[in-house]
Amino acid sequence: TQYFLDRIEAGKHWNAYLDVSAHLSLDQASKADKIIASGKAGKLTGIPVAHKDVFVTRGWKSTAASKMLEGYQSPFDATVVSNLGIPDELNPNGAGMVCLGKTNMDEFAMGSSNENSAYGPVLNPWNSEYVAGGSSGGSAAAVAAGLAPIATGTDTGGSIRQPAAFCGLTGIKPSYGRVSRYGMIAYASSLDQAGPMGKTAEDCALLLSAMSSHDPRDSTSLADSGEDYGRYLTQSWIKDSANSAKPLEGLRVGLPKEFFAEGLALEVANAVNAAAKALQQLGAELIEVSLPKTKLSIPVYYVLAPAEASSNLSRFDGVRYGHRANEYRDLSDMYKKSRTEGFGAEVKRRILVGTYVLCHGYYDAYYLQAQKIRRIIAADFQAAFEKCDVILGPVAPDVAWRLGEKSKDPVQMYLEDIYTLSTNLAGLPAMSVPCGFNTSNLPIGMQLIGNYFSEARLLQVAHQYQ
Ligand code: GLN
After folding, report:
1. Least crowded by CB within 10 Å, which of 9, 111, 428, 459?
2. Which residue of the set 31, 52, 61, 102 is catalytic?
C-alpha cells in the first residue's frame, strides 16, 4: 500500500486520482495485516485497489467528477466497494482489499476521453499528449502507470473497454446484472454495469469473482451472481482435450463483417486480424458473422442513455442532493442556478436531449423507436451466437486521440463508441484485451463478446491468448 501511495504521489501529473487519503489506506492495510496474521486471508487480502469515483465510499469523497457533488461524503459503501473491502460488522464477507483512493472519470460517466471531468482530463501514461479514454480513464491510467495494481470501472457504452484499450489493459464488462449497481452513481440504469480493469485476464477474473454477488438492494441483480470466473483459465476449450498445443480447439470465433468495415483504422484492423490468426493457431475456427444494425447502435444509445440520465440526474436539485447556489429568488430560481452551476456542458447537453426525447409529442418517434431497435440489436447477437461461441472485433475505430482533438464536436466523439455500445444495449458481457501497438507506440485493444453469463469463458479465451 505504501509503495502505491508513493507512486501516486510521484505520478500526480497523470491526474488519475481525485481523492487519496493515505491514512485511510494505511489503516485498512494494517487491518489486512491482522487478517493475514490470523491465518484467515483470502486470495485478495491486503492487495490494494483503486475505485472509480462513481462508486460511493465511506471515508473518501464521492463526486462522479462533478462540481455538483464537490466534497460529497457518502455515509455508506457501494456494494462493489464493500464486497472488495476489509470485512467488518457491516460487510463480514469483504475480500480484504485496501482502497487506494478514487479515480478520475468523465463527469457522471458521460464521455469517451475523460476530458469531461470537472477536475481536468486524465493523461495517457503511454504518451501524455493523448487522452486515456473514458469514462473510466482515471482507473485505466492508474493501472497503466503503476499507480494501482488493479481498479474498478463502469461501462454504460464502453467505459471499461475503451480506456482499457487506449491504455493497454485488460477489462471486462460483465453481463447486465452480474455486479450490483447499489451505490454506483447512476447514469443510464438499464445499461450501467461495473467491472474490473487490470493487466491480465487472470487479474480481472480474481477481481470480478469478488466484486459480483446477488444483492437484494439492486432489483436487477442476478440471483446466482457468485461464481469463480477464473475456473476455466488454464483449461482447454474442450474439457480434458488431449491436444495441449491447441487449447482453443473447438472454439468458434465470429468476426462480424460490420466491425471491419469503413471507418476502422488500418493499424487497428491489422492488429485485430493478427490476434484472430493467433487464436486460430491455438486451435480456434474463424467464422464470418453479421451484426447488421451495428451503425444504428449509436443513435439508439444516444437516445436511450440521455433519456435515462435525464431522469436519474433529476435528484441533483440542491435539496435532495448536490450543490446549492448561494443566491436565488425562489425555489425554481434555486433549482435553475444550482443545476446551471453544478453540471458541466456535456451533462447539460444529455439532460436536454433526454428530456426532449421523452416529452409527450416526441416519445413515440424517438424513445419508443429506439427501444424497438434495441430489441433487434439483441436478437442480431443471438443469431450470430448460433454460428459462433465468441465474437471478436476492435474495441474502438482507432487508438487514443490527442487531448482536445475531438472536444469541439460531440457527435465526432459519439461515433468513437460504434463497436462498444451494442453489447450494453443487449446486456451482453464483453472484454477488452491488448493486442499490439500502432506505429506511434499507442496501445491497440481487441474486443471479445460472449453470450449472456459467459464471463468465465471469455476470460478463458483471453487468458489463453495472453
Ligand atoms: N462514451 C459513452 C458515453 O459517453 C459511454 C460512457 C460509459 O460507458 N459510461 O455515454
Report:
1. 9
2. 52
Strand 127-131 to strand 123-124: parallel, antiparallel, or no bridges (unpaired)? antiparallel
* pLDDT at residue 91 is higher than 90: no
User: Each residue of 250-288: pLDDT tens digit?
Assistant: 999 999 999 999 999 999 999 999 999 999 999 999 999
* 182-221 residue pLDDT tens: 999 999 999 999 999 999 999 999 999 999 999 999 999 9
Pocket of ligand 1 contains residue 454 by CB under 6 Å? no
C-alpha cell at 286: 474463424
Buried b (16+ CB within 10 A) or exposed e, 271-310: bbbebbeebeebbbebeebbbebbebbbebbbbbbbbbbb
Give the active site residue among 25, 66, 113, 159.
Answer: 159
The grid coordinates of residue 450 equal: 460472449
Distance CA 39, CA 52 (A): 30
Distance between CA 345 and CA 407 in Å, rounded? 11
pLDDT tens digits along 225-255: 789 999 999 999 998 887 888 999 999 999 9
Q: Residues near 333 by Cβ (< 8 Å), separated by ≥ 6? A: none
Q: What is the best residue among 106, 154, 415, 416 to mutate for testing ligand 1's pocket, by most ligand atoms within 8 Å of CB?
A: 106
- 159 catalytic per annotation: yes
- The domain defined by 2-211 folds into Amidase signature (AS) enzymes (3.90.1300)
Q: What are the residue ranges spanned by the domains of the chain?
A: 2-211
State the DSSP code for 24: H
Helical segments of 282-429, H only: 297-312, 331-342, 345-358, 369-384, 410-415, 421-426
Beta bridge partners of residue 102, listed in sequence order: 19, 51
Ligand 1 neighbourhood includes 156 CB (under 6 angstroms): yes
Extract the C-alpha cell encoding 437. Answer: 501497438
In 139-199, where do the E strands start and end? 151-155, 170-173, 193-198
Q: How many angstroms separate the Cα of 334 from the Cα of each of 310, 314, 343, 362, 440? A: 18, 14, 14, 29, 49
Atom of ligand 1 nearest to the CA of 416: 1
224: helix, strand or coil: coil
Regarding the beta carbon of 109 and ligand 1, being less than 6 Å apart is answered yes
Pick the catalytic residue: 62, 66, 135, 136?
135
Evaluate: CB of 395 within 6 angstroms of ligand 1: no
Contact 152, 419 (CB under 8 A): no
